[in-house]
Amino acid sequence: MTDTNPYNPYNFLPLQPTGRNETDTANTYAPEDMIKIYEQQFLIPVPEEKLTEFLPALKSFYDIDNHTLDVSAIIFDAIAESAIIYNHKVKTGLYEILGELVKEAIEYDEDNKNDKDAEDKEIQAYTLECKRTFFINEVEIPYHFNLFIYGDGYSTLTKKETVLEKMYWFVRGRFEENLLDDTEDNDSLDSINEQLASLGIREMDLTTIDEVISYVEDSIIDDAMVEVLNKLLDAAE
Q: Most buried by CB count within 10 Å: which residue of 53, 117, 171, 224?
């Protein structure tokens, strides 16, 4: 549904119930539809003066109760491939390796006596250009980063081109004092929200941006990508 009507003022998704619960007090729905019900609680824009009316309207439209909403949250946490961060749905997409491993020579730190990877005062390291796609409210946004692999560890250096990459630098600049001299090159909150709006994404406050970037940093490298990276490292050695 795209047009508001008096019977469905919030344009809830039409879903087909599977039946009634044991006490015949609420409809039951398939797990994938329960996820849609859960998501709509957060993703449908609601005017502030209508906030108290919204949840009763949702429950009435689907003929469900509070227990159904609680179950929908449990199902979402268990099987959904996305996260709800305040009023935004964030999902991790595919990764892409954009180049080849580049060897980087690093001098051995004399003070680091416990580094088992050190050999002849040189530790082998590699850099690799990568990209991970993310979706915010179904809008695809690329996230480019340089992966630095050092022994058993790694770090990333994010570019500053897409709005998601700019959000990363905005967050980092706010919390790391050693970047204060560079923060004037970062986009402002207003600028970031203008770019989000141009993509059809609702504006974010500071807390939301912090949470989104935390999700991104936790998701840029997954098990499938690690497996491929290990194969590349084995081939390079």
A: 171
Residues near 21 by Cβ (< 8 Å), separated by ≥ 6? 27, 28, 68
Q: 113 is written with which tokens?
A: 């006596």
CA atoms within 13 A on the CB side of 61: 21
At residue 18's C-alpha, the angle toward residues 14 and 20, to 5°, is: 110
Rounded CA separation 179/195 (Å) = 23
pLDDT, one tens digit per residue, over 33-57 is 999 999 999 999 999 999 999 999 9
Amino acid at 115: D
77: which 2 tokens?
């946490």
From the list 43, 44, 42, 36, the residue with the least C-alpha distance to 76 is: 36
**CB-CB neighbours of 155 under 10 Å:** 10
Give the helix/strand (H/E) hosting 95. strand 88-97
Residue-wise DSSP of 201-213: -----HHHHHHHH
3-state per-residue secondary structure call for 15-73: CCCCEECCCCCCEECCHHHHHHHHHHHHHCCCCHHHHHHHHHHHHHHHCCCHHHHHHHH
pLDDT for 3-23, tens place per residue? 456 678 899 999 999 999 999
